[in-house]
């Protein structure tokens, strides 16, 4: 029989979390014009999605081969890829919804 879990102590002594430094700007050149920023953001987002999915695929192959040293790395990469895909689909759905709404407007 196991003993019940006692209260957590010493939480106040935890170290503060350091702020995360912003990442370097994307190397994708910005397109000029009113839609340039959105187009470059969309392109950069899709490139990032491909990289994240590629990394998760690499780790999945390593896990299948038995050469993966840290299974948690695959779990994190897989979850990151799933979230990035969900975000991309949500953005696409909103863009299609906005386009449909614009097409319904009367001239």
How would you characterize the overall build of this protein?
- The chain has a domain at 36-104.
- With 107 residues, it is mostly helical.
- It contains 2 helices and no strands.
- The termini are far apart.
- Helix 1 packs antiparallel against helix 2.
- Helices cover 60% and strands 0% of the residues.
- The protein has helices spanning 36-65, 71-104.
- The protein is elongated, with a radius of gyration of 22 Å.
Helix content: 55-70%
Task: State the order of secondary-structure elements, H for helix, E for strand.
Answer: HH
Radius of gyration: 22 Å
What's the number of helices? 2
Strand content: under 5%
Q: What topology does this entry show?
A:
Elements: H1 36-65, H2 71-104
Helix pairs in contact: 1-2
What's the quick description here?
This protein is 60% helix and 0% strand. The chain is mostly helical and 107 residues long. It has a domain at 36-104.
Looking at this protein, list some descriptive labels:
2 helices; structural molecule activity; FliE; 60% helix; cytoskeletal motor activity; elongated; mainly alpha; 107 residues; flagellum; cilium
């Amino acid at each position: 029989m196991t003993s019940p879990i006692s209260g957590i102590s010493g939480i106040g002594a935890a170290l503060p979390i350091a702020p995360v430094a912003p990442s370097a700007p994307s190397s994708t050149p910005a397109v000029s014009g009113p839609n340039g920023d959105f187009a470059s953001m969309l392109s950069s987002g899709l490139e990032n999605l491909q990289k994240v999915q590629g990394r998760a695929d690499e780790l999945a192959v390593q896990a299948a081969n038995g050469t993966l040293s840290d299974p948690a790395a695959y779990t994190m990469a897989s979850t990151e890829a799933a979230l990035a895909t969900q975000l991309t689909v949500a953005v696409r759905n909103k863009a299609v919804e906005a386009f449909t709404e614009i097409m319904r407007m009367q001239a």
